[in-house]
Amino acid sequence: MSDNDTILIIDDEVQIRRLLEITLSSNGYKIFSASTGHEGIQKAVSHVPVLIILDLGLPDADGFEILRKLREWYQKSILILSVRSSEEDIVKALDHGANDYLTKPFRTGELLARIRASIRQNQGTAEDPRMLFGSLEVDLANHIARKNNEIIKLTSTEFSLLALLAKNEGRVLTHQYILKEIWGMGYIEQTQYLRVFVAQLRKKIEDEPTKPKLLITESGIGYRFGC
Fold first, then answer.
1. Among residues 98, 123, 148, which one ends one of the domains?
2. Lowest mean pLDDT across 39-43, 87-91, 122-126, 166-170
3. What is the share, in percent, of the chain residues with pLDDT greater than 70?
4. Are residues 77 and 178 in the same domain?
5. Bridge-partner residues for 151, per DSSP?
């Protein structure tokens, strides 16, 4: 657990807040909650939590507007927890600064895993020059990757893609975000181009490329590394 183990829940559903409070408290987190967007912003300012769980369907404001206002100053992780499951809403939330998106109803184990991954991002895990994911090692300092202590032959672009995904472990990255970061603005619509590179990368880092456990597809949205 980090020194700052406070989580803020912004959700107007009493049952959801109670469920989250019980679940997260039993796992060692200190919980604050708010039933409206503006109350949530006030509590975020007062407590500066390590992570915010934000619903999009709030009674006083659109969840995207609350997300935008939080991102004007709040630099830590925001996890969207919403009944909205459309690709458009998920991509919009991620592109507007959410770190992750989980739809209701949710599985407790998956929620806890997403929270742990987001908090690791806050703690600067991504800045560690050597990252370990089971038998896979991503060495940022030396620009190489190893599997079972054997160097994997990667092109410069493949390594850049792997490094970007690994540094954002647990976070869903949209196709457009990845394409912009790796290839530039001129490629943001070339999703098929990205799929080719992802397939190549999976062949080199996954134990079973057709059943990936590291480089996960979020259908119609993008990719998530780990968890």
1. 123
2. 122-126
3. 94
4. no
5. 146
Domain match, 147 and 99 both: no
Triad 192, 205, 196: Cα angle to 5° = 10
Does 94 fall in a domain? yes
Instruction: Write the Ramachandran bin of 119: left for phi over 0, alpha for psi from -120 to 50, otherwise beta.
Output: alpha
Range of the domain at 171: 128-225
Q: Where are the beta strands (DSSP E) in the chain?
A: 6-10, 30-34, 51-54, 77-82, 100-103, 130-133, 136-139, 144-147, 150-151, 172-174, 215-218, 222-225
For the residues of 13-31, what is the DSSP string, one character each? Answer: -HHHHHHHHHHHHTTT-EE
Domain count for the chain: 2
Q: How confident is the model at residue 121 (pLDDT cuts 50, 70, 90)?
A: low
Q: What pLDDT is stored for residue 128 in this prediction?
A: 55
195 and 116 in a single domain? The answer is no
Q: Quickly tell me which residue has 């991503």 as its tokens.
A: 138
pTM over 0.85: no
For 97, 141, 159, the CA distances from 129, given in Å and listed in that order, are: 25, 5, 14
Q: How far is CA 101 from the centre of its chain?
A: 7
Q: What CA–CA distance (Å, rounded) separates 61 from 68?
A: 11
